[in-house]
Amino acid sequence: MRTMSRPSIAERLDRRASFRSSGATSVPTSSALAASLPGACLIAVLSLSIPGVTLAADGAGRQALTTNRLKVCADPANLPFSNEALEGFENRIVDLVADELGLEARYTWYPQSTGFVRNTLRVRQCDLISGITTTSERVQNTNSYYHSVYTMVYRADSGLEATTMGDPTLAERSLGVVAGTPPADVLARLGLLGRVRPYQLITDTRREKPAERALEDVVAGEIDVAFVWGPIAGYHASRHPDAELVVVPLLKEAADVRMDFSVSMAVRYNETDWKRTVNRALAAREDEILGVLREYGVPLLDDRGELLGD
Known about the structure:
Elements: H1 9-13, H2 16-19, E1 42-48, E2 68-74, E3 77-78, E4 82-83, H3 89-101, E5 104-109, H4 116-119, E6 128-132, E7 140-155, E8 175-178, H5 182-189, E9 196-199, H6 210-220, E10 225-229, H7 230-238, E11 245-249, E12 260-267, H8 272-284, H9 286-295
Parallel strand pairs: 2-5, 8-9, 8-10
Antiparallel strand pairs: 1-2, 1-6, 3-4, 6-12, 7-10, 7-11, 7-12
Helix pairs in contact: 3-8, 3-9
């Protein structure tokens, strides 16, 4: 394993507090019930004209713009969620919503960073966020359109057959985890921090992709196991067929550390009519959205938290 000059494991994994007010992360954090964005951090600025629908603005007396375009702000380099070539599954899902509403999608690219929601939705740069669980920012969520889970990833030729983080065979293995995510809490509780290589949570995705890098380190044999948000794991594992990566959904962990999250879109609090409009579009395209998610290898759970079959 290569030598790294980095802060201590405890220091890096303890930076969760600084993430809670960020409003934007690629994955649900360990405080995700208070603040997280697991999806693309894909922001859709929707300025539209829909008969009978009034889009209330965030401030008293203000109204959203009225055009026939779905103006989208999205991270330009954050697959599998979004990118500038429109190759992400959130790009595809937004296209389905736009089509259902009879709008033309237009993109403005904005890198994911600290204060993402605050600097976009809150200041009316955007009217919709795609790919969010819950957040500390002032938003209200739409109905969810998928439910996924954290995963454990290792090579098929590693000799591992672990299905839980407490498997004793992991105690002598090198482990990778994105700091501030739920698996990091479990690893700390299990006393495995000495085996952990941490990957930074909040980055500029144009330059650094921590979860993807953790998976690449598994492929290269630099670490044995990576603990990664399911949509990222499923997508990138399929891109390394020669490594035969095993993706294990973490469905058997203790209930006090949540590993699964429902993903929705979000609007400003005042815009309840607009939220209902988005909900109707999501419901109308439910089967197509499910097809897109399956195409990208997203591990999907039902309402009971069990894996959906093919």
